[in-house]
Design brief:
By secondary structure, the chain is of the alpha+beta class. The protein is 50% helix and 21% strand. Strands 1-5-4-3-2 form a five-stranded antiparallel beta sheet.
Length: 155
């Protein structure tokens, strides 16, 4: 009986923490009001307007085609500003694993165009950078601005 009770308690804790991990996965996802191509273009324009360089674009759907497979439209944009990223790396070099930043533009199974990216606050916690580090709020605001510009109609 004690074993069953102990197993139930362990299972309850595992379920609780697994649910919390899934809820706090560190991803931010936004639905776009635009087509796939327009969302990608608007994101690139918004990044350029903030002096954030696009270092690379990876077309996952095109890559899938090269091996005889198909994916819905899926484009990864890799971007950053060395003046900002270097400040984060000075605080914790391991954040270099997650820099430069990335945003995934994709069409989901329902045909909805989405932009998904890593929450900078999550990355800061992951790499032991204090939440009040001055660059974190700046990066969070920049990500919010550029992804809103790519996904939401101008007011």
């Amino acid at each position: 009986m004690v074993r069953i009770f102990s197993a139930a308690i362990v299972l309850a804790f595992v379920s609780l923490f697994a649910g919390a991990a899934m809820a706090g996965d560190g991803l931010i996802k936004k639905q776009s009001a635009y087509s796939f191509a327009d969302t990608v273009a608007k994101l690139e324009t918004a990044l350029a307007g903030r002096n954030i360089g696009v270092m690379n674009k990876i077309d996952h759907a095109a890559g899938a085609e090269t091996v005889g497979q198909s994916l819905r439209p899926t484009m990864l944009l890799i971007f950053g500003n060395p003046a900002i990223g270097s400040q984060l790396m000075a605080a914790s070099q391991s954040i270099g694993l997650d820099l430069p930043l990335k945003a995934l533009v994709f069409e989901d199974a329902d045909g909805v165009i989405c932009v998904e990216y890593n929450d900078i606050n999550y990355l800061a916690r992951r790499h032991g950078i204090p939440a009040d580090h001055p660059v974190i709020a700046r990066v969070a605001g920049g990500l919010e601005f550029v992804t809103n510009a790519a996904t939401k109609p101008a007011e």
